[in-house]
Amino acid sequence: MRRTSVISRRVAAASVSLVLASGVAACAGPKDESAGGAGDGKARKGGTLTVLNSDPQSDFDPARLYTSGGGNVPSLVFRTLTTRNREAGAEGAKVVPDLATDLGKPSKNATVWTYTLKKGLKYEDGTPITSADIKYGVERSFAAELSGGAPYLRDWLIGGDKYQGPYKDKGGLDSIETPDDYTIVFHLNKPEGEFPFLATQTQFTPVPKAKDKGAKYEEHPLSSGPYKVVKNENDGERLTLERNKHWSEEVDDERKAYPDKIDVRSGLDPAVINQRLSASQGVDATALTTDTNLGPAELAKVSGDKELASRVGTGHFGYINYLAFNPEVKPFDDPKVRQAISYAVDRSSVVNAAGGSSLAIPATTYLPPQDSFGYTKYDHFPAGKSGNAKKAKELLADAGYEDGLEITLTHSNAKDFETSPEIATALQDALKKAGITLKLKGLEDNDYKEKIHTAKTTPGFFLAHWGADWPSGGPFLAPIFDGRQIVKEGAGNYNYAFLDDASVNKEIDEINKLTDLDAAAKRWGALDKKIGEQSVTVPLFNPVYKQLHGKGIKNVVISDWTGVLDISQIAVK
Description:
Among the domains are: 78-228, Periplasmic binding protein-like II (D-Maltodextrin-Binding Protein, domain 2); 319-543, Roll (Dipeptide-binding Protein, domain 3), CATH 3.10.105.10. Strand 5 and strand 6 (112-116) form a beta hairpin. The protein has 15 helices and 20 strands.
């Protein structure tokens, strides 16, 4: 469940292309050697790739990283049981084996998953990778000293809710068995057909117990990937990666590892990053970013320059921006009021406030428009392009508000396109046409997050967003609509509508039993449509991300899993 604002600057949902100003699109997959650069255009090994990012690459420890599909930079060093398919577009939203020989063998009820490791896997020091190392890597992610990773293992593994990690509980987790060096077995509390997706998380990175240095392990984690860390300055502010000579492409079908060296510079100002990539001089000619996007003004400037436009990558990722209701606060306890607002919304003005049609796609479904999520098209409260004020007024009258209604919309004052004052103002103007006076309540970002995630302080009406930890309906719908995930005390609640529908909860359980991911996707789509009828959210838009890269970058691949340039495929020669 990606919950932080980091995603707001990184990724979004549906198809991928490299967009040119002339309107021609081209996107080179891993085997297409025609992207970027001079000469014959073929991607070759060698050179240095520079990564310019605004988000700090801190806590570079597989236990502490909250990534899906192995992330980007981490995926160069940390291999996992499974990983994302390193192809462009929808094909890249599939899960494939990594350290394991397959996606895992489930028991009949999907509560036991067995993995077999490939032969010939080695660390950067030449020692073999074993199943015991993966078990230990998972176990250390439970340690309080190494907090920050995804929470699923604590919830899914038998005994995970009580386990405190290997530094305190010396016996280890009995729910993970390693009968031999190549076999690892996971015992779960309940059926989880999407365990192959979970196994892409960096917590499944092998860590040899003898080399574990606790919180200091991040300074030089032992590499299982094509690159090793040779320098980590100021907690990830600058990472220098060089080839791991013991990595072999014979046992890694996904990573290309073209550059000899990768220089990762983090914590940079976004404007500076885009300026450097635009100029593309010196080392910046072979540079890219995985977290800094072009804003509306920057995109307009770039689009007017054919050469710059040819270096803009367009990415989509599973993400939704929406209006959230708390039905425990009046008047949002009345479905007719919620439906009236749904009809009154002007998505065209919202899209414009989010940066225009190049940066946002209007949405009427909660699930993003990707097959992997089970996207099922629906629009229960058709508002058209500019809102249906007439229908909204009729519903308000039925609810007893013939003379209109005054409500408050809470939003963050952070200057991003998700919960920004600009989007709030666009909604204010649209709802006014339907007789709804919208008062805006802007909060500092930390205060906003604390209020919406704490049950006792959740506003009645506010701007919200959600991004997927992997491309499936499971981590998208369950955290928001499963009544058993409501957190009533303290922070950490994401079911803002406090929806506790027995039929929804049951269907979530039934889908989780499915190990056929395509069949599960169809069920998630149907469930999304069913939940949508209750008007507990108003989907607004799916963001689109535009990122510049240097003129010497080759082999551009952007998948629907991450929505950003895949470093593992990039060549600079």
